[in-house]
Amino acid sequence: MPGTHRSPTHGGCPWFLARDPEKRTPLEAETIELTGPVDRFSLDIDFAVRFQGFAPVVPPAPRPASRVMPRGTVAYWRFDSSGLTGAGTAGSAVAAGTVARDLSGHGNDLRVQLLHDSASKALTWSGDHHTEQPAHASLRFDGGKSPDRGAILTTTAQAPLNSLTFTSGFTIETFIKLPEPFEGDHAWMGILSWEGRNGDAGKTTGWSTEEPTCSLNVTPERFLQFVLYPHVQDADPTSWSHALPVGRWTHIAVVNNGHRTVMYVDGSKIARNPSQSATGIATLGKPFVIGGTQFAEQYGQGFYGWIGDTRIVNRALAPKDFMAPSA
Predict the structure, then answer these.
(1) Mean pLDDT in each 10-residue stretch from start to end of the chain (327 residues)?
(2) Does CATH place domain 65-321 in 1.10.560.10?
(3) Backbone phi, psi, residue 249, to 5°
(4) Domain coordinates of the chain in residue numbers?
C-alpha cells in the first residue's frame, strides 16, 4: 500500500534459538532475546520515497538507427515507423508487399510475402519488444504446419546481401520471442536464412544437399540451430543452444571471425559451438529471408512468434557491441 509503513524491530540471536535449550548456558539463555529500550524500536518508512532512486526500473528509450550501426553494418531492419511502412497499430495485418527498409542504406530492403494460402493475419505488427532492443516494435508471425502457413520477408533478386560471402567474418543478430503457451508443432521452423541448396555450392558434408547454405532454426526441443556451409571449406559446422524459454524475449548473436563460429544467447556464449573451421558463407546470389527456411528450395511452415530488430555486420563484434550489450 502507498504511504508510510511502521516496521517494528527487536534484538535477538537466532544462533542461540537454534541450539538445544538443555545445552544453553545461563548467559546464552539471558541473551536469546534482548528487551532493553535500545533493543526494541520502530521505524517509519515510506517505501515509495525510500526506493524511488532505483525502483521501478525505468526502461531504456528507443535508440535511433544511427546509434546502432557500427562500422561494417551491411543491413539493419527494424519494425517501427522508421523502418516499416504502416507500423504503429498493434494487431494490424502487415500486407503482402509491405517494405521493411534497410536502414544501413545498402539497398537490402525486405518485402513481405505470405506463404501458401495464408490469411492476412499470418503477419501482424506489435509494439512488444526486448527491453534493450533499439526499436520498440516487432512483427508477430503466425506460422505453422498442417497446413503449412506463415509469412516471410525477403530481399529482392538484386539485393547486394544475396551475394556477400563474409570471408573476413560476420555478426548476425536478432531478437525473438516464443509464445506462451507454445501451441502446435513448430519443429525446425526457420528464423532467418539465405535461399538456395548447399549442393549447388558444391557442399557434400551435411545432412542433405537440399539444405540452404546458412540458416537459424528452432528444433523440436526449442533449441536454436545455426547451420553454416562456409564459402571456403566443404563443411557444415553447426551451433546448438539450450532450450529457449517461452513468453519472454531472447537476444541471439552469431559471430564468425573468419575462422570459427560462436553463438551467443542473451550475451552468453553457448556451450555447443562447433570446433570446425568456417570461413565465409556460401551464398548463391539468392535472397536473404526473415521468418522461414527453405528445404529443396521450397518453403513449408513459417516462423511462430515475434521477431524484432535484425542486423548483419561484415566483421566479428564483441558482446559489448551487440544491440543488447547487457542482455
Answers:
(1) 59 69 73 66 72 76 96 99 92 97 99 97 98 98 98 98 99 99 97 98 97 98 99 98 98 98 97 97 99 98 99 98 87
(2) no
(3) -80, 145
(4) 4-50, 65-321
